[in-house]
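Appendix B, example 12.
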Amino acid sequence: MTLTVERHPYPDRMTGTTLAAPLRLSERVVADPPVLLAPMAGITNTAFRRLCREAMTEVLGANRAGGLFVSEMITSRALVERNVKTLRMIRFEPDEQPRSIQLYGVDPVTVGAAVRMIVTEDLADHVDLNFGCPVPKVTRKGGGSALPWRTGLFHEIVRAAVGNADGVPVTVKMRIGIDRDHHTYRDAALRAQDAGVAHVALHGRTAADFYGGTADWAPIAELVELLDIPVLGNGDIWEADDALRMIRETGCAGVVVGRGCLGRPWLFADLAAAFDGRPERAMPGLVAVARTMRRHAELLADWVGEERGVTDFRKHVAWYLKGFAVGSDLRVRLASASSLGKLDDLLAQLDVDQPFPAAMIGQPRGRTAGARTVALPAGWLADRESRSVPIGAELAHSGG
C-alpha cells in the first residue's frame, strides 16, 4: 500500500515554503499536524495521552484531527491470552480518536493473531510494531531493536501483521541497527514497505547508543530518498523547533516525540503552534505546572484507583520540577505521596511564583545513558535470513 501525502499549508517561516502535510494512514487515521507521541513504557497510558492531546487541541481547536497518541507497548502473546493488565492498558477514552496501539512480538503467528483480534474486536484504528526497544530484557530474546537483523523473521512478522489487519494501517518503528557495525534500517525499511506498512518511523540511534549522545538524523534522510511510503523521524526532539528542523534537514513526513514531553505535556501545544507557523511557545510557571501535576495524578487515579494512580505518578515528579527551585526534601516527599490529599498538601508548599526555567529549554529529559554492549541471543548475528523464533522470546508479560 503506497499512500500519497497530500500537500497542506504548514508554512515554514524560515524558507517561505510548505513544510509538511497531514499524515494520512487511512480515512480514520490522520495526524494533522504530522506528530506522534512515541510509546513509552509506564508513561503513555490513557492519563498522559489525554494531557498531551488536550494541550494540542487547545491550540488547534476541536475541528482539527491533531496528532496520534500511541499507547504503551503491549505484548502480542499477552493480548491474545487476554491478560487483564494488558486489556486495561489498551483502554481508550470515548473521545480518544483515532486509537493507536503499539504491539511487540517475535512470533509471526502470535503477532498475526494479535492483529486479527485488534481488528475483529475493534480495539484500535492503528497498529504500530515495535522494532526499536533497546532494553536488554527484550534484545537478549531477539526482540525490539535486535529483531530487524534477522531479516527473514522480521519480514514474516510484518507480513503477518499486515495480512491480518483488514485495512487497519500497520506501521513500523525501529532504530538504525544493533550497533555501528550492524546497521539494519535500510533492509528492514525496504522489507516493511514490501510487506505493505503505511509508514516507517526511524529513531536516529542504534541499540548500543541506548539513549545517550546525539541522535543521527542522516539515516532518516536516507530512508526518505529510499522509500515510496512516508518516513517519520524520531530522536532529540526536545522543543517544537527541533521538530521543524528535523523536517527541514531530512525531508521526513512527520515526527515522533518521546522523552521531550516527559513532565511537559504542553510540548504538544508548542508543536501545534510551530506547524501552523506561529511563534508562541508555552512556558508555564510553577503555579501552572503544579496544576498540571495535580490533574495528571487525578487522571491516573481515575484510571487505576487513587493509591495505585498516585504511586504511578511519583515517577513524573522530577520531570515536572526539572529546573525549578524546589528543595530536595520536598521533592522526595512529593515523589513519595500515596494519596491525592497528601499530594495536595505537598503541592501547597511549593513556591509557585517561579517563572518557567529558561535554562531548561532544549535540554535532554528522561533516560540519557548510552554506549553499552547489546545483549543478544547466542548466535544471533550468524544468520540474517533465519526465520526461526528464539525460544522464550514471545514475552508473556503485559508490556509497558
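The CA atoms of residues 239 and 394 lie 36 Å apart. The two ends are 29 Å apart (CA to CA).
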